[in-house]
Amino acid sequence: MNQYLPVLKNKKFGWLFLSIIITNLASSIANLSLVWVAYHHFKSAWIIALVIAAMQFPGFIIGPFIGGLLDRFNKIRLMIIANLVRSAVFLLLIITPLNNLADLGLFLLLLILSGAMIPLVRGGDAMVIQEIFSSSQRIVANALVTIAFDTAYIMGSLVTGLVLAIGYGVKIYVIVAGLYLCVAVALKMLKLTELTNANQTNVRQAMTGLSTLKVIWRDKDTIVVLLMDFMWNMFLWAGIAVLMPIIVHNIFCDNAEIYGLLEAMTSVGIILGSLLVGRFSKKVSLVHYVIFSIMGHGFLFMLIGLSQDVIFSATLFILIGLVASPALVYKATFYQDVFNQVNRGFLLTFVGSISASIYPTGIALTTLFVSLVGDKNITIILLSYGALVVLMSTFALLSVKRIKLRN
């Protein structure tokens, strides 16, 4: 715990950490409930894809531009505005039924508006951590952020399962709207003058930032991490988002409590793994940790389709979380260490937006495969995705080795 105490005692990080916990709780409840409600209302995997795309894809379109705003203006104030908008969206969802296609269109438009706010929040969080801590402490701070994410995800899964068991709609949306409002209050407690950028960049440079993309292209390690992140999001995280409700439907008789339980188990493993990551100093490069972690996730992903028992499934998802946690922590730290100059907001938001954009692409791809092979044959998808990620991880390790030999 000695590594964690200095970080936790930092007052600015304390308020940020509280806001991150509440944000993640709200997002967990919102994402899980919206996917579950959509699937059970329309009984179509394509509706799951539409809902997730509406929440995720807007960040890819406007993420880099919003990143420029984070470089130019007060990042905390922008984050507060983003959370107020998201709170208002979920209040509007209360009076938005799903009776016909027009209702579905309005529903998706509101989710698009909420999703457009995500880059402001995530980019701002990363920049504040970057400003507060040195490189060594960022690993601990990012481990805590990962723990906060998955602790909130567990709580969100349990709350979602309980609320879904007794009814949909208003109960969920009121909770989410209230939580986003609490996030805005927590961020307001941060001292804005201490966290604003001392060197504000030209707005045109921050808004376009084309020259800053050379920073990414010049660093081959960054390219490798980005490509692995893309594969990870497209096949493993996006894949399980579509397949999990189908797995529960096929094997566990559509039990909402088991759905919430299995969703929570991955987070249990990530919390335990992140605690270990924050305590130990790194022995090899961050890039190697990221690749090995994603490779291990791929191996375990192949086993999901073989499970027919709740206990085995829960244990497997815990192991997946343990193995995936180093990639989550070290990936965030790697980007913060590399992007530490001008237009940090643009670069951090850009890589986050590109990575996030792959998620709905993976949702659509998995949905297409499910429609081709059928709900009863999704084991084929699980095995294929896991094997492909393992293969790509092997190529990535060889590429990193060649880069080091050239240098």
Describe this protein's structure.
By secondary structure, the chain is mostly helical. The protein contains 17 helices and no strands. The chain has helices at residues 4-8, 11-42, 45-72, 75-93, 101-116, 118-132, 135-166, 170-188, 192-195, 203-208, 213-218, 220-251, 256-279, 286-301, 310-338, 344-373, 379-406. It is globular, with a radius of gyration of 20 Å. Residues 194-208 have low confidence and may be disordered.
SSE blueprint:
Elements: H1 4-8, H2 11-42, H3 45-72, H4 75-93, H5 101-116, H6 118-132, H7 135-166, H8 170-188, H9 192-195, H10 203-208, H11 213-218, H12 220-251, H13 256-279, H14 286-301, H15 310-338, H16 344-373, H17 379-406
Strand content: under 5%
Give average pLDDT, whole number.
81
Global geometry:
globular
Total strands: the figure is 0
**Coarse structural class:** mainly alpha
Give me a quick take on this structure.
With 407 residues, the protein is mainly alpha-helical. It is built from 17 helices and no strands.
What attributes characterize this protein structure?
single chain, 407 residues, mainly alpha, 17 helices, 0% strand
